[in-house]
Amino acid sequence: xxxxxxxxxxxxxxxxxxxxxxxxxxxxxxxxxxxxxxxxxxxxxxxxxxxxxxxxxxxxxxxxxxxxxxxxxxxxxxxxxxxxxxxxxxxxxxxxxxxxxxxxxxxxxxxxxxxxxxxxxxxxxxxxxxxxxxxxxxxxxxxxxxxxxxxxxxxxxxxxxxxxxxxxxxxxxxxxxxxxxxxxxxxxxxxxxxxxxxxxxxxxxxxxxxxxxxxxxxxxxxxxxxxxxxxxxxxxxxxxxxxxxxxxxxxxxxxxxxxxxxxxxxxxxxxxxxxxxxxxxxxxxxxxxxxxxxxxxxxxxxxxxxxxxxxxxxxxxxxxxxxxxxxxxxxxxxxxxxxxxxxxxxxxxxxxxxxxxxxxxxxxxxxxxxxxxxxxxxxxxxxxxxxxxxxxxxxxxxxxxxxxxxxxxxxxxxxxxxxxxxxxxxxxxxxxxxxxxxxxxxxxxxxxxxxxxxxxxxxxxxxxxxxxxxxxxxxxxxxxxxxxxxxxxxxxxxxxxxxxxxxxxxxxxxxxxxxxxxxxxxxxxxxxxxxx
Length: 532
Known about the structure:
The chain crosses the membrane at residues 12-31, 63-85. By secondary structure, this protein is α/β, with parallel strands linked by helices.
């Protein structure tokens, strides 16, 4: 702002100076015409006799003062004009550059340098009209990064910004020249493909986009990021940009519910499922208050003896219309609505009450409770509530094992939470071990007593020998650190035999029973019924 003002002041000074010079020249000419020649003769005589030699030399020539003034004035006028034109040229160039910069900023994202949402939607309108005229087919790819919040929590927002810029550059390089790529906001991007071919061709593009960001560098650390992609087509799925964008967003939400690194094409069934999710989101707070959420328990057995020694508390929702809902259907809704702490309190109260009932009946079982990332943010209340519950029901804190995932441990307050839990006597287990990038670092930082091998490792034991070697390596590591190991997802006798041979301490999965109520598990533990 100050620089343009300074330029205007300089131009004004040049104009005023030129006006003064012109006025002086006019005055000299008028004076000369009015009879100033006689006076000039006296001045010339004085100059010849009294002034410096150079002035006497000039005055001795047949030049009048008017001509001197005109000549000097003309030179000054030309100089001032040159300076004025120079400043005017610079000012115009600065204004032109400013217009270009403002036009770029109005159409491009400030962080990544790709197109922004507003410009993308304007172009989308034009592309739809052109496709209608030419009977063309468009494909809209809605891209949402996985675990970007976890990356920000682990390395900070500056590292997150660096990763966004790097990912955007990579995706920009992957697109065709006819495609348009933009950042919609946050960690969400869109790619509009003109002349879109069959679904398999578009799927290949989506897979390349996901592969390019599967692992990223975050301040000299490798981070398992990844992305999910939702795809909608013009004209099959919609004929306006808003409708297509909404349907592609529904598709990417369905993809994220399936897991990481997923692609989903829009289908009409997705819209029905999302409307069901909207209903669950609206009804979940009332369901928690009315006690529609209840706890079931999955058995955990000792690997060597096969004896039932523990149970993991899992939550279910008995919906009045949809029936029994699994956690995979309503817990993502609870996370979006920030309701996980309330659900954790319900599960904790019922599970510890069940543990007390088992103890009174003579069963020496322990129990495992899952803690979410949102619970870590309110760890002070959580630890107090846990301590109060075990005290009220007369059970020992060491009989309660708290399971935390890597995502939970990435919270800034996680270290304080684990320290407080250990000080109160609770045990800590690292759940889904091996699915993240920094499990070994967490074993060093946190006072973990048990690690739980993710079910995906167990499921691939007989399809890929790499996973057998990996589980053996985990067991060797646990032995060195004095940790116990539980394998999740055991379903077959072959898996059980191999895990026992490897030396896993405890086993959990459908082979030992599906999640059941507290009374049903008590019957199983007492030997009155077989595992379900």
